[in-house]
Amino acid sequence: MAEIVMPIFSAVYLCDDMVRDTATGKTHLVGLFDAFRPVESQPPYVLRKLCVFTQLTDWQGSVDMRVDVARADTLDLILTSPPIRFQVPTRNTIVQVPIRFSAVAFDRYGDYLVELHCNGEFVQDRILHVLGPTKG
Description:
Blueprint: E1 8-9, E2 13-15, E3 17-20, E4 27-30, E5 35-36, E6 45-57, E7 61-71, E8 77-80, E9 84-88, E10 95-106, E11 110-118, E12 121-130
Parallel strand pairs: 5-12
Antiparallel strand pairs: 1-6, 2-6, 3-4, 6-10, 7-8, 7-9, 7-11, 11-12
């Protein structure tokens, strides 16, 4: 059986956005988080902005990426991004990939998995905690 070869990914980050400084070439991740407390008192609980950011290297050619968001306890999907296709020119190229969403709706408090898939294969995930109201 042929072995599946995958690019090498840095960690997956959850943030509000990614900004590239054209003057310096630096990338800035804005508002890193692993949890949010909704302002709504009833579902759906809406996360206004979500940017899933990763870097990949050690690959050349076409890459198809997507993000799934699933409940951690049941693995029921609540969101699947359309596939994002791009080309990597050389194996030594580091490609920075932001996948942006607006108004992601959650139907209950709890933990969710934000999963990164590459060329149809699971790569990594991050837990996103949707927090309930503060007690006080």
